[in-house]
Design goal:
Elements: H1 25-32, E1 41-44, E2 52-55, H2 57-60, H3 70-76, E3 81-83
Parallel strand pairs: 1-3
Antiparallel strand pairs: 1-2
């Protein structure tokens, strides 16, 4: 094989990679706002009928997950901090809410 040729995978085999970027939103908010670091953070709506779009690792320790009703998330993590989504700063994501 010539030095410049590199084979990756099996020829003729198609591979699909799925990356769940929803979990990315909360760490972005913690990166942009140092006051949120180390605290349970949920990106999403905090109103009665709101939904968690993403949860930080600190919030996940309490069982908070994406697509969870906000009121349930607040019960599971009483110190949970809700942050409104800023879709303009999350790469590759258009507003869908």
């Amino acid at each position: 094989m010539p030095d410049e040729a590199v084979l990756v995978g099996t020829p003729g085999v198609r591979k699909i990679i799925h990356i769940d970027m929803d979990a990315f939103y909360a760490p972005v908010e913690q990166l942009d706002n140092p006051d949120l670091r180390g605290k349970p953070v949920a990106v999403g709506g905090s109103q009665k009928y709101g939904v968690v779009a993403a949860a930080s690792s600190e919030a996940r320790k309490f069982g908070v997950r994406a697509a969870m009703p906000s009121i349930t998330a607040q019960r599971q993590s009483p110190d949970l901090i809700f942050v409104k989504p800023r879709f303009d700063v999350y790469p590759g994501r258009e507003p869908s809410m």
